[in-house]
Amino acid sequence: NELFINFEYKAVGKLKQDKLNEDAIAKVFENLDDEEYLAALRVLAPTEKNKKRTLFEKHLKAYTSRNSFDYFIHKDLGGFLGRELDFYIKNEILFLDDIMDSPIKYEEVMVKIKIFKQVAQKIIAFLTQLEELQKKLWKKKKFVIETNYCMTLDKIDEKYYPQILACDEQLDEWKQLFDVTVKTIDDLNNEPFLVLDTKFFDLKFKYQLLSEFDNLDEEIDGVLINSENFGALSLLQERYREQVKCVYIDPPYNTGNDGFLYSDSYQHSSWLSLLYDRIEISKIFSASDGVFFCSIDDNELANMRVLLNCLFGQDAFNTQIIIQSNKRGQTYQQIAKTHEYLIAYNVGKDSEFFELPKEIPANATKDDLGVYELWELRNRNPKFGRHNRPNLYYPFFLNPNKRNENGYSPVSLEKTNLFNVEVYPLNSVGSESCWRWGIEKVRNALQQKELSILVGKEKKAGGWNIYQKARKSSTKAKSIWSDTAVISEQGTIEVGRMGFLEFGFPKPLALIQKALMVGTKNNGLILDYFAGSGTTAHAVINLNRDDNGSRKYLLVEMGEYFDTVTKPRVQKVIYSDSWKDGKPTTKNGISQIFKYFKLESYEDTLNNLEFKRTEDQQISIDTFLDAKEDYILNYSLDEESQGSLLNIDTFKTPFDYKLKIATSSVGETKDTAVDLVETFNYLLGLVVKRIEILKGYLVVEGQNLKKEKILIFWRDGQTSNQLNEFFEKMDWTVYDREFDTIYVNGDNNLATLQKDETDFKVKLIEEEFKKLMFGESR
Fold first, then answer.
1. How far apart (Å, rounded) are the C-alpha atoms in residues 627 and 642?
2. pLDDT, tens digit, 9 for 90 and up, residues 561-608
3. Which residues contact 49 (CB under 8 A, 6 or more apart)?
4. How would you class 116 by CB atoms within 10 Å of its CB: exposed for 0-12, middle for 13-18, buried for 19 or more?
5. Residue 745: CA atoms inside 13 Å, Cβ hemisphere, count?
6. Using CA atoms, how far apart are residues 659 and 30, in angstroms rounded to an integer?
7. Rounded distance, CA 703 to CA 722, Å?
8. How would you classify the pairing of strands 317-324 and 480-481?
9. Are 654 and 745 in contact (CB under 8 A)?
């Protein structure tokens, strides 16, 4: 007497779940022949908004919602429920008026409270254990899944060209991305900015290629990470601590539009919680001179300002720039909105914003020394004058009979036969004013050929006008950006020209370039952890191409379009700065290396979670029955999940470590190799110098941010004796001072030195890995 209705969970394009539910209900009602079941399914379960809701619709909605709700993990569920329990007992069970005059009633109430509290505390204990496990899984550092590198051919030695030429997959991608056909070695030599992707080659080739670089991390221009941004920032914090010069983010605006992978219709408090956690951890990345930019619109502007004031301090606020986003305005509104905002904050104690390059009009005034503007030297501030700025009140002397071709007379600070007309700073009504410069600065300026001071053609009511020939190469950014290039409607054109799949409304390239010019000089690391289509990396590469800068980019994006839009966009920008209909119109490439990888997701962690009770644990439970309940309520989930979170035993053959990783948004998984090497590098915060395969061992050299030199050996099943022989052949010893710490996977009998009471020079990778993965500070 049961009815089974089977559903499939899969990707369905842009159809919304409510529409899918409607279709499912209609099909069931249409195809079900049993009138008894139909009647049961059609029983009404109305709500205030949906008076005709059926019982079937109610349960179907509840079922499908479980797979689509966004949720937050409580940071202190035990404390919260404990306080709520006390509040409930005091307000709902303990009534003082009933028990004050009745000892019997008092005893009854106290017994009731005691029993209720005992039961409630057990429920709270188990719920707390469950929530603490979820918090642990969320905060756990995530594994790196397959690291690869993209690099231009000018970075690669010609000895690798035959292997590259033999890789059909690489040649096919070059044709697809760059419309370039490569058939010979000469073709490779003629295309220095073709971007090779190591994903098409085996591990041996990849590490051979990387071994050519003596300072690998320094050579890398950018890093792209396909990951939920909180997990990525958590893993990266030790490596990039206090190194980021500029953060730019374009978070979901919370408009109710479903186009964002992060839910775009949170309650304000939930939206703020999402942003708070991410911005808070990103503060760790900012250098002492770091700055922060955030694009936002009216929906959450006020809340974002409060949030940023809370995180950075109210005094850190710099400005709020108005960005014209749509000239026509959003016409579906009663008052058409035409703009968004760019908020700027000082993050570090030495934060600095910079001027923009000055645009020189075609009709600019020039002389032998180049373009100049005339700036009036008189101080126009009515609050300043001889009475409070006496040092800025002095005469110039001019020769009114001598004029140049532009009608200006030269001036002097000394009265002579030629320079005999006195000029004082007077305002428009003839009252005493003052100059902007002191007399010594003027004297120095007159002595420098590149800077001249002239007197105007005509005498005005307030006296002669004295001007400075200003040769400014930069100008202050204004608080309104309305030039055509920064209007967001232009953004889709740039991406479309490169031949990408459709991508929503990417931020205009010119807007981010302008922000980066204000926020950095021609160097520094730029971080964007809502990277979208990769406009920030595009902007960095373009700026470096224009001014020969050395800016670097660090981008995090969780979307499935990472492989179809974000990464290909960066590859294309490297090859050419101009595209039309998906094909390059120039070959103005730039030499570049970027690294990219995917991170294990929270859902991947859940998919790999297994609860296994060891034989020793079972014996203890059976032996100490009094402790059984305490163990199950408070410790069982954490203890019995350890093996599935980090399997230390498999480190003996580290290149075979696999996890079930989701291959799509609908939960399909595939056993996928995990990059333990790269994961460990990030856990240590290692700045990699060299990485190479030596006699079957993967060897990594580098240093952490404390400048400690580190050597890491990854062996793939070799014995301790073989490791010792390898050390001897490489002429390494733990007794020299070349390295501060040496890490090795698996048990070994290498000699070691004790650096202090608890610290040894040779350490097990497994022990350090476990400690760092679960958040213990170094």
1. 20
2. 899 999 999 999 999 999 998 899 999 999 999 999 999 999 999 999
3. none
4. middle
5. 24
6. 43
7. 26
8. parallel
9. yes
Q: How far apart are CA 221 and CA 218, in angstroms?
A: 8
What is the rounded distance in angstroms from the CA atom of residue 405 to the CA atom of residue 746? Answer: 84
Whose structure tokens read 């950018």?
A: 222
Place of tokens 């004297």: 443
> In the chain, what are the helix, strand and coil shares in percent, each to the nearest 5?
40, 20, 40
pLDDT digits (tens, 9 = 90+) for 372-404: 888 888 888 888 889 899 999 999 888 877 776
Q: Is 60 exceeded by the pLDDT of residue 501?
A: no
Inter-residue contact 425 to 387 (CB < 8 Å): no
- Residue 389 near residue 477, CB atoms below 8 Å: no
**pLDDT for the residue numbered 265:** 57
DSSP 328-352: S--TTSSS---EEEEEEEE-STT--
Q: What is the pTM of this model?
A: 0.84
Secondary element (H or E) of residue 229: helix 229-240
Measure the CA–CA gap between 311 and 432, rounded to whole angstroms.
49
CA 384-390-396 angle, to 5 degrees, is: 95
> How far apart, in Å, are the Cα atoms of 644 and each of 140, 205, 227, 608, 656?
13, 32, 21, 6, 15
The conformational region for residue 571 under phi > 0 = left, psi -120 to 50 = alpha, else beta, is alpha
Amino acid at 486: V
User: Which H or E run includes 702?
Assistant: strand 697-703
Q: For helices 636-645 and 103-139, what crossing angle results, to 10°?
A: 10
Contact 281, 237 (CB under 8 A): yes
pLDDT of residue 120: 97
Give the residues across from 226 on adjacent strands: 557, 598
Q: Give Cα 230 to chain centroid, integer Å.
A: 9
CB atoms within 10 A of CB 769: 21
Pairing of strands 480-481, 222-226: unpaired
| 3-class state of residue 249 by DSSP | strand
Yes or no: say if 172 and 181 are a contact pair by the CB < 8 Å rule.
no
DSSP 398-441: E-TT---TTS-EEEESS--SSS-EEE--B-TTS-B--BSS-HHH
- Which residue, among 87, 94, 141, 139, has the nearest Cα to 113 in the 3D structure? 94
In DSSP notation, 650-684 reads GGGSGGG-EEEEESSTT--EEEEE--HHHHHHHHH
Residue 323's DSSP bridge partners are 340, 481
- CB count in 10 Å sphere of residue 453: 19
Element (H, E) at 515: helix 509-519
Residue 490 — pLDDT band, cuts 50, 70, 90? low
* DSSP codes joined into one string, 703-771: E-TT--EEEEEE-SS--HHHHHHHHHHTT--TTSSS-SEEEESS-------B-SSS-BSEEEHHHHHHH
